[in-house]
Design goal:
421 residues; alpha/beta; Amidase signature (AS) enzymes; catalytic activity; Amidase_dom; Amidase
Length: 421
């Protein structure tokens, strides 16, 4: 399948070698060819996007008229936002979420809402993995990852509370970039956990995600062909390494060898006890806050919730405030300790998921190798390009220092180019 390279398309748009309308029609053809089987979109309005694509001056802006998908957990004023739930079917927010407004100001054309699981939780959606339709695309940003992997979009916005950017990117074989916490504002999304919810981006390559982040935020993140010079990369398998499949271990080993061949200094690194202990704090913080965030739905619209989510929220209401407060203190200690770790390394390399996408649709997969990095708020990037023997994508995850997103992207770009060779 043909992926759409956002940075290259934007360069062509800026140079006048193509037009926003031509790019949009390319997207429309891909949607016509793949959407019926992939089912990545919760709402789609190509006619509105066509009218926007014909506006004068669009190519003078950073995104230059590139089509963008927005996860249906994020408010949009001109498209319905149902949060993946029948409770909000047909809901029309009054305002765009700030990240959507920023995307439009940068010249992005919001063509549709991409499928999310119910309230970005665990109930699998209807979306299928375009790399193998019999396998899960992951969750909760299933539609965003699948739309990019199917070549139906060059860019899509998702969210992550535990592993919902990195995991679907790994399963679908694309770049997933979870920036430093709050680099992209989370206002205007349906909150699950206000200390953990993080906006993220999906694109074909690391440089495409970096370009999009730069365009949307105005920050110096567009790395282009830049790669890190002899970075120090610590291989982190974590205390949960036994849960990773043989394919995941093989992918991590292959990525380490590729990085070393490109001049990186690669070594195994055991996480300090304070960091390993913080992994258990993430679900406590997530669930305590979710019980508060969804208190209204649980009290007044319980019948409209899936049994899976309702039971989870019921259990979450039993978490004591003292337990939650202790988990937050554990997280704070871990963040401080992580600063010490990054005194020795430029980036960490670890699993994106326990293995390739699971067959069937009973689960969206496990976030066990992502939740710690979400808790710590540091940038994380799924790097695509590795596969199992039978062709399923297996991602590896690169983790950077808090607030050092450009450095993390440059190391990720090195690793991606090393793997592709």
């Amino acid at each position: 399948m043909t992926l759409l390279f956002a940075r290259d398309l934007a360069a062509d748009l800026h140079a006048g070698r193509t037009t926003p309308r031509a790019v949009l029609e390319q997207v429309a053809r891909a949607v016509g060819a793949r959407e019926s089987e992939v089912q990545a979109f919760a709402a789609l309005d190509l006619d509105r996007a066509r009218a926007a694509a014909d506006q004068a001056g669009l190519t003078a802006r950073a995104l230059a008229g590139l089509p963008v998908g927005v996860k249906d957990i994020i408010d949009t004023r001109d498209l319905p936002t149902a949060y993946g739930s029948a409770l909000y079917a047909g809901h029309r927010p009054r305002n765009d979420a700030p990240v959507v407004a920023m995307t439009r100001r940068a010249g992005g054309l919001v063509v549709g809402k991409t499928v999310t699981t119910e309230f970005a939780f665990l109930k699998p959606s209807q979306t299928r993995n375009p790399r193998r339709l019999t396998h899960s695309p992951g969750g909760s940003s299933a539609g965003s990852a699948a739309a990019v992997a199917a070549g139906m979009l060059p860019l899509a916005i998702g969210t992550q509370t535990a592993g919902s950017v990195i995991r679907p990117a790994a399963f679908c074989g694309v770049t997933g970039y979870k920036p430093t916490f709050r680099l992209l504002p989370t206002l205007g999304m349906k909150t699950f956990s206000w200390h953990l919810d993080t906006m993220g981006l999906f694109a074909a390559r690391v440089r495409d995600a970096a370009f999009a982040a730069a365009a949307i935020t105005g920050r110096d993140l567009d790395i282009g062909e830049e790669t890190a010079e002899r970075p120090r990369i610590g291989i982190v398998r974590t205390a949960r390494a036994g849960s990773a499949s043989a394919e995941a271990h093989a992918a991590l080993d292959a990525a380490a060898r590729a990085a070393e061949a490109r001049g990186a200094r690669v070594f195994d690194l055991d996480l300090p006890e304070e960091l390993e202990a913080a992994d258990a704090a993430q679900p406590i913080i997530q669930d305590f806050e979710a019980a508060l965030a969804f208190a209204d739905e649980l009290a007044y619209d319980r019948a409209g919730l899936s049994p899976l989510l309702a039971a989870h929220l019921d259990a979450a209401t039993q978490i004591a405030p003292d337990t939650y407060d202790q988990a937050r203190r554990t997280a704070k200690r871990a963040r401080q300790k992580l600063g010490d770790v990054f005194g020795e390394v430029d980036a960490l390399l670890t699993f994106s998921a326990p293995g390739p996408a699971p067959e069937g649709f009973a689960t969206t997969g496990s976030a066990m190798f992502c939740r710690l990095w979400t808790l710590l708020g540091c940038p994380a990037i799924n790097i695509a390009g590795l596969e199992t023997a039978d062709g399923l994508p297996v991602g590896v995850q690169l983790v950077g220092r808090f607030g050092r997103d450009r450095q993390a992207l440059a190391v990720a770009n090195l690793l991606e180019s090393a793997i592709s060779r």
